[in-house]
Amino acid sequence: MNLDPKIAGRLKRNPEGLVPAVVQQHDTGEVLMLAWMDDEALHRTLTTGRATYWSRSRGEYWVKGDTSGHVQHVRHVALDCDGDTILLKVDQVGAACHTGDRTCFDADVLEIAHP
Amino acid sequence: MNLDPKIAGRLKRNPEGLVPAVVQQHDTGEVLMLAWMDDEALHRTLTTGRATYWSRSRGEYWVKGDTSGHVQHVRHVALDCDGDTILLKVDQVGAACHTGDRTCFDADVLEIAHP
């Protein structure tokens, strides 16, 4: 099985063949994390309803929650206007972040110096 | 002026020296777009309160809204747990997308085939 050629034809991949996926909690709107997909990861995500990424550090497909239990049930998938970013709206079970935080953006807030 | 070395030390950049920035409307939670920042763009964003990116297509800094009027007033900035993604919460004036859509993810929704 392969990604629908009509979708594959719209994707713009980086030199590693990957596209960033922004992952958002479908009801609260929290941005949970950013991960990376190749064509196969997007295909698996669309056909299984389970968020599936390419792990750049481990060099393998990664079904979110398979080891942690912190599954992402996919509710909505969209490409952006340039085909170079994916937005996933999911129902996140438990913590999205491997640190145990709900989102990967909870711990390191930067100060804005208003001029 | 340069980016605070304590922040620069936590950033993990891609081979082009860039980090993806997820841009979200601060009150509604809409994910508006994804853009790219280098250290200088992040520095300018934090010190001016105006979202500033590196345009990969034009090879120049890009203060969002300078030509379109569709300014992004920055309300919140955070790094993710790995330091390789930035989350910006902004107050977006008008359309975030160059197509005129409110967000860059409005036009190309993909079908999920629930198994």
UniProtKB/TrEMBL annotation, chains A, B:
> Gene3D superfamilies in the record, alphabetically?
Phosphoribosyl-AMP cyclohydrolase
What is the UniProt remark on how the cofactor binds and its stoichiometry? Answer: Binds 1 zinc ion per subunit. Binds 1 Mg(2+) ion per subunit.
The UniProt record lists the Phosphoribosyl-AMP cyclohydrolase domain at 33-105
**Range of residues in the leader sequence:** none
Task: Name a GO CC annotation attached to this entry.
Answer: cytoplasm
**NCBIfam families per UniProt:** PRK00051.1
Q: What family, per the record? A: In the C-terminal section; belongs to the PRA-PH family.
Q: What is this protein called?
A: Phosphoribosyl-AMP cyclohydrolase
Q: Which organism is it from?
A: Bailinhaonella thermotolerans
Question: Which gene is annotated as encoding this protein in its UniProt record?
Answer: hisI
